[in-house]
Amino acid sequence: RRDMAEAEAAGSAGAGPAAGQGPGEEGAELAAVIGATVPTGFELTAAAEVQEKLGSASSVSRDRGKIYFEVPARSLPQVHRLRSVDNLFVVVQEFKDYQFKENKEDALKDLEDLVKKLPWTDPLKVWELNNSLKKKKTKRKKHNVQRTASKEKLNDDGEEEGTAQKDTNKQEDCAQNATGGEPASGQDTEETKAAASRNGEEEEEEDDNEQSDAKDDVQAGSGDGRRGQGEAKVLKFRVTCNRAGDKHSFTSNEAARDFGGAVQEHFQWKADMTNFDVEVLLNIHNNEVVVGIALTEESLHRRNITHFGPTTLRSTLAYGMLRLCDPQPTDIIVDPMCGTGAIPIEGATEWPSCYHIAGDNNPQAVKRAANNICSLLKKNENKESSTSPGVPLDIIQWDICNLPLRTGSVDVIVTDMPFGKRIGSKKKNWDLYPACLMEMGRICTPGTGRAVLLTQDKKCFAKALSRMGHIWRKGQTVWVNVGGLHAAVYLLKRTWERAEEKRPFW
């Protein structure tokens, strides 16, 4: 609800993408209109995150799963750290009501002619700046890895055996560290706090570096798009067309081919479908046309997961679900069917002041989730180049219908329930869903507890929920697209009624 209110307020501020935005009010300040693809159904959640973290109002596209917002170009590093966005692009121009000709040849000719009229200069400067930031980040990453390696050498007095031993120990202790367990030999948490504050300072320093790098590059950017890093380099490009609507006389491929031909002629770039420097986006949704330049090479939703399972949830969708339940500091958040751990890992990363518990009945899933937590810990160590204090997350193998947790001890439950397609079956869900809701109701705090549950088996869930009305009240429903399946995210509120008694389900 908070997200809805914030996003509505943001929408009323009316900061949609303007045609060919140039420098901001401060004169030479380069402004960028950013388009972001987000999980369908979570557009308002993403808009609220942008408002909260960047102070920018967003407009939600009529084409579901996209939002637009304006930021100074120097804020690009923060834009890439948004948790709710999959892909980012800088808007060259948007046409809210583009009139397509009925004849195919005429419609395609209009798209070709459009290329020469578009305000490419500033968006290309933003693209160049984005590229230089990516390179600096890669260099910094390499530098940190080298520094960590040299530290290890010093600590082990150059003994290769010691390093190997340390790595083995690290691997064995990884799951234990991931839980953020008790400090060794009865030490208090002062050391951990000191390490955390040191890491915080280093992170702030890194942010400042990125900010100043961005500022320098904004001033240095040439933006003519005809040169790359060296004078002689000819940029390679491709055009990707995403089209929706049944009133167009042409296909996506035809639009991409003809628009791409005009781009090639205009910039003298070289077309390359696989090994390209620049990806030009042509998004057509009925009469809404947006031309953009991609800022991300691969979707940001893969950020946490290195060990995948058959139904691994996108990190961006996990973030949307967690944000829906409005986690508060010290909340205990449980994912009782965690799979590869996408939800608890996202939770521990973004809400470290909460305590996260993950579990699954499948030992393979628990193993994958533990490996993903290990990867996160290693990434944190490399990033902070010092001992990481761990993450506030425990993982355990358990039975969803008989959880080893005290009655009323959990504040929030967030989970992706089995759809009955790749895992389980629709038939089994008729017994599983009511049993799950009953056990979740038992561990959840009466009156204040809440649950956010994702499922595509809506009929079975609705039936189970109607039988559990004494424990759970339905708050909000968000319709989402999960791998082409029409699914729903339900926000449930825990009633004050005790849940010990076992009622017949059907």
Task: Describe the structure in your own words.
- The protein is of the alpha/beta class.
- It has a domain at 315-494: Vaccinia Virus protein VP39 (Rossmann fold, 3-Layer(aba) Sandwich), CATH 3.40.50.
- The protein contains 13 helices and 15 strands.
- It has helices spanning 2-12, 43-54, 76-80, 104-117, 121-155, 160-178, 190-220, 252-267, 315-324, 342-350, 363-384, 426-443, 458-467, and strands at 31-37, 58-60, 66-72, 87-95, 236-244, 270-271, 278-285, 288-294, 332-335, 355-360, 393-397, 412-416, 450-455, 472-482, 485-494.
- The strands form 2 sheets. The chain has an 8-stranded mixed sheet with strand order 2-3-1-4-8-7-5-6.
- The chain is elongated and about 70 Å long.
